Each structure stands twice: as structure tokens, then as C-alpha cells.
Amino acid sequence: MKIEIISCLSDNYSYLIHDEKSNTIAIIDPSEFETCDKIIKKYNKLDFILNTHHHADHVNGNLELKKKYNSKILGFSQDKKRIPGIDILLEENQKKKIGNLEFEVIFIPGHTKGHIAFFFSKEKIAFTGDTLFSLGCGRVFEGTHEEMFYSLNKIKNLPPDTKIYCGHEYTKSNLNFCLAYDPQNTFLKEKAIDIQKKLNSNLPTIPTILGQEIKTNIFLRCNDPEIKLALGLKDSSEVEVFSKLRDLKDSF
Ligand code: ZN
Ligand code: FE
User: Fold this and answer.
1) Spatial separation of the C-alpha atoms in residues 40 and 238, rounded to whole Å
2) By the 8 A CB rule, do 148 and 136 touch?
């Protein structure tokens, strides 16, 4: 499984997947036609388009790409009215193959009501859209904080060596937020150096590794006593800590 990272718009990532054995090409969340097509053209085919959720910055390339390459569009069944050109309706926990590559549909509502992640268990790769970012998580637009918290927990339970490919390059601002509320975290300080190196060389900070995120991403650390103390929420539940952090980040 070969993955090409395609930078779109100001900070979006689309991802091209190439299964070399079966020569199958798929794209995750095509933000815009032109930029994605520059990469797709090299292969001269696009078998599948996979959407994590319905937002325009994730589906804008759908119809033009489908028209040009006769691709099949896969999205969550409950979002069939909101995903342009959808052909194949995916269900929660469903397993589906593109070429020889099998992924599992993980239902992770919160950012939107119909948000899903694609988990390729054999390769240990997850595409998390706007739910889990490196050092952050998506805004809660359509769901509740509680839903978002449980969705993040589903991702947290994947194997720790899972590579996370998310929908945006928000890592730097997420890092600043984590540093503000978790300043003593040595793993975070180490990750900060690595992130800065990549950004200085104009490289994506993606993929990130789930195990690293669990140690550094404050939204996955709502049970940490020091973070709870820093927020004045010593005796609060993890969901309450998460809600507080999400609210703080919204105005950070
Ligand atoms: Zn979104
Ligand atoms: Fe987005």
C-alpha cells in the first residue's frame, strides 16, 4: 500500500492510495479537483473515492473526478444525501475491499453526525478525517461533546503502532494548545522538536503514530491527573475534562 499525501487548499490533506499488486487507485477526501488530478493523472485511473464526512473541503473533488475516471464513491450510508455522487453505502463496522486492501468502517460521530474513519488493519493505517488530528481533534459541529469523546476513544483503542492520516495540517496550533495546558509533558517536548523540524523543511507532520498521540495529544489524555489539576477539574469525569478542553480550544 503506497500513500501519496496531496496538500490541498490552505491546510487540507487528500490521500492517494495505490495498491500495487492489483493496480487499484483510490483517493481519500478529494478537497479539490485540479490539485488531486495532477497526482491521479500519473496513474491515469481512479477506481475509488472514499469520503470521511460530507464537508465541502473533503468532497469538493468528488463529482469531477468521478466524471473523468468513472470512479465509485464510497461514504457512510447515513450521509447518502450529503455526499455528492455517492455509489456505495458503507455501514458501521463493515469490512470492505479496494483491490487487495481491506479496511474497516469506524463510525465516529461528533464533528459531523455521519463521520467515519477508514482503518486498514493489516497495514495498521487509519484515515481519521476531521476527528483525530495530530495533537488535536476536530470541532464538534453536529454531535455532542460526549459523542466526540467516545469517537476519539474508539480510535484510541486501535493498535498503538497505527499510523494516523488526518484531514488537516493543524499540528502547529494544536501543539501550542497542548503546551499551554500540559507544559511538563516530556513526550510533548520531544514531539515539538520533531514537528518543528518537519515544518521548517516544508514537510507534512502527517502521518503521526497513535501511540505517540496517546502520550502527547491532550484530547486523548483527559484522565491525566496533572491536566485535570491544571484545568481546576481534579474530581471531574473524563468527558467533562474533554468538554472543557474542547471549549478552551475553540477560543484559543
Ligand atoms: Zn470537516
Ligand atoms: Fe475539514
Assistant:
1) 43
2) no
Give a yes or no: residue 107 inside a domain: yes
CA-closest candidate to residue 245, choices 168, 151, 177, 165: 177
Question: From the candidates 18, 37, 47, 53, which is the catalytic residue?
Answer: 53
Is residue 115 part of the annotated active site? The answer reads: no
Give the domain CATH number at 21. Answer: 3.60.15.10
58 is catalytic: yes
**Residue 154, SS3?**
helix
CA of 45 to the centre of ligand 2 (A): 25
> Does residue 180 lie in a domain region?
no
pLDDT in tens, 38-63: 999 999 999 999 999 999 999 999 99
Task: Give pLDDT < 70 ranges for the chain.
Answer: none
| Domain, as residue range, for 11 | 2-169+204-213
> For residue 82, what are the CA distances in angstroms to 75, 94, 237?
10, 20, 35
64 part of a folded domain? yes
| 243 in a structural domain | no
Residue tagged active-site, from 79, 115, 168, 182: 168
Distance 158 CA to ligand 1 centre (A): 22
State the pLDDT at residue 242.
98
pLDDT tens digits for range 172-219: 999 999 999 999 999 999 999 999 999 999 999 999 999 999 999 999
The answer to whether 53 is a known catalytic residue is: yes
8 Å CB contact between 123 and 153:
no
At residue 68, the pLDDT reads 98
